[in-house]
Amino acid sequence: MIEHIVPILAGTLAAAVPLIFAGLGELVAERTGVINLGVEGMMLAGAIAGFAAAVESGQGAAIGLPAGALAGAGMALIFAFFALLLAANQAACGLALTIFGIGLSAFIGQHYISYSLPGLKPFAIPLLSDIPLLGPILFKQDAVVYLSILTFAVIAWGLAKTRLGLLLKAVGESPEAAHAIGYPVIGIRFGATLFGGALAGIAGAYLSTVYTPLWVQNMSAGRGWIAVALVVFASWKAERLMLGAYLFGAVTILQFHAQGLGITIPVQLLAALPYLATIIVLVVISRDRRVLQNNLPASLGRSFLP
Prior knowledge:
Blueprint: H1 2-31, H2 39-57, H3 61-85, H4 90-109, E1 123-124, H5 134-138, E2 140-141, H6 143-161, H7 163-173, H8 175-180, H9 185-211, H10 223-233, H11 238-257, H12 267-287, H13 289-295
Antiparallel strand pairs: 1-2
């Protein structure tokens, strides 16, 4: 049992990275009142763009991750054009974006099925990585794991402690009031949406260039939907989202170690555990309407035209 603890916990940190990036991006967008259900499509676009850029350049994740961010932001720009400028239904635009991302990534990715990448080697932090038990778990990870933690810290601090964070919340609560005192509501929502798309693209690129690292059609495997659910699970708070990402990362990685732990559960059920956990958590949270009403952005999903 003990010999499985370190690889399970270390694997949890890596498995949570796509959920952290995608979830934080969606959290920032929803703080301004924009709900983008196209996270899955943006992740897949980022995955294939990052993988293609990494293969063609020969530079691996160093080029793949920025390329994924650009692809995710480009997909978000399409969503923002229709949902924000033309005031189309946000839920419908997000679903269409996911369908488009699935098809586009499959079309482009058919040329890269036979390729693979070396990925990123774990970076051991001197001295800290030698700490018994905790060292290999916390301080011997690839660089993107550390980047995800830094991204969380910056976003959590920015939302809670800065003027920009208060402005994003004000736009999400009452875009009419924010517009009345001179703030560019559409511009702020545009920026938050593109930022969320870029983070979703990074999440996808991490899957294809670091975590796997190869291209497989629909390789996000529903993580985009889990990221959207995590925002609700977290009650629109970055700290809870981080905790939820690690929780679902642990459930994901546990299925790979189940046989070694002597757990005799059908493989199909183990593979479904992250999604079952998502449904259960959402059902439990939705029963407490007070929590949702206290944290839900008042204008979430509602179009605004000045």
